[in-house]
Amino acid sequence: MAFGATIIDADGLRLTPQEKALFRETDPFGFILFARNIDTPDQVHALCDEMREAVGRDAVITIDQEGGRVQRLRAPHWREWEPPLDLVARAGPNAARALYLMYRIIADELHALGIDSNCAPMVDVASAATHQFLRNRCYGSDPTRVADLGRAAADGMLAGGVLPIVKHIPGHGRATMDSHFDLPRVDAALDDLFAVDFAPFKALSDLPMGMTAHLVYDALDDRAATLSSKVMQVIRRDIGFDNLIMTDDISMKALSGPMTENATASLAAGCDVVLLCNASLADRRAVAEASGQMTPMAQTRAEHALSMRKTPDDVDIPALERELEALLGGAGHG
Question: Within a 13 Å sphere around the CA of 174, how many CA atoms are in the beta-carbon half?
Fold first, then answer.
């Protein structure tokens, strides 16, 4: 039987009886955690267990643990990380190794909690105009280097048993507005988009999962990429990303209109699974029911992504930390 075509969240530190019932009935493909779901290691592990018990399988559980401002696991129980752009700058020619180490250590923390996915690497290419909500989360402004750094980050996570979700496909770097609140428009020529914005995603098209960008590319469509079959054709055919594609959070203000309509429109456009965050129980149910089950192709992509989960390689994490500190000049990681 196919998975439900959603990834959804929970309100608190443990599941409510109503959430357990919702998850059991709608069988979402996976779950995502936020700061409100995080207290202690034991608590997070118990919450992950509850989520998987509710659907009766080893469902994927993801989180945003990029480093810097966007990280849900924080001190005192977990490491604090500087923004990726700052870490890349400090590491200089050793940036690829530094990002590998950073994300291998992050993967170790996630895997210990039962979290087996991370919404990273973020390979949006930065420019001087990139909105501040995104800029220091980027890895740089050269697409080839960004792709190399994204590969290093993804390899670190995969080695640690964590599935990377590359974002925001096919490229959010030119956005001058925060898509949490507005719908950005990009008026760049298609040749420029392929040469810069889309290039890292083409280089990383073998990664198991990708997350869409909520922005309009005027050269392709007047609809947000998440809802655009034209953009999805570019992602699948020209960029060559044929693995699982999830939407960015459809509750973000970049997308107007009812969430149920945005869910069905994104699936009709070619997305495989709908991400819904920070919504009421009623809205989560409505979106899950509107989204229904994965298509056969989406199910195949989902199973392929899950098959890329592996037992973490055997490494000495303190030794990796020491190596990372040395690469960063001995000043620590955050």
Answer: 20
